[in-house]
Amino acid sequence: MTNETFTIAIDGPAAAGKGTLSRRIADQYGFHHLDTGLTYRATAKALLDAGLPLDDEAVAEKIAREVELAGLDRDILSKHEIGEAASRIAVMPAVRRALVEAQRRFSTKAPGTVLDGRDIGTVVCPNAAVKFYVTASPEVRARRRYDEILGKGLTADFDAIFEDVKRRDERDMGRADSPLKPADDAHLLDTSEMSIEAAFQAAQSIIDAVLSRNA
Ligand code: C5P
Predict the structure, then answer these.
(1) Going by fewer Cβ within 10 Å, which terminus of the chain is more open, N or C?
(2) Considering the domain boundaries, does residue 13 fall inside one?
(3) This model's pTM is above 0.90
């Protein structure tokens, strides 16, 4: 973080609402937003597309270094198989180092940035001006994902989604390098029984307080 840049770090497990919250915050303050999950997804997709293995760290690192942050497309990268492959390559330290370097460069853009992911407050931007840890129970997160799929007119199996959410949590929280956990100085937002709008209001008052203190 430079003196001119105000960085907001948002971490949490899959489907906790951090993407929606991050985009709202970035819009509100006119800050640049990076969904860092997309960088892991883009690396995984490039490996899959090229027919390369998902378990070769040197190959995955090389591909990770070629990821262009400007070209990340949420619609293309949101596929379930890509998320699954992303969480497999995200356990590799060399892949993480490559992507974290790019994420840190992004975080210094003026006038401010919002980065969301799993390790932003703990590893990528430990000096962020404000940190949030957004969570919700696995049941609530699985239900949200299920409703979202049904809302698109598609069919889904709730139990399979629930199992998937739990498996992804285990992998993200249990890995040795940069496991998902709240930073000591993160504000906790549990959206199990709170709408994303209410979470946004809560986040906004915290950010406004820090901004006015820094002014
Ligand atoms: O958030 P999203 O589901 O798009 O992330 C895909 C995967 O990328 C996650 O399951 C996680 O393993 C990994 N990831 C990570 N660190 C981040 C962002 C995502 O390890 N900062």
Answers:
(1) C
(2) yes
(3) yes
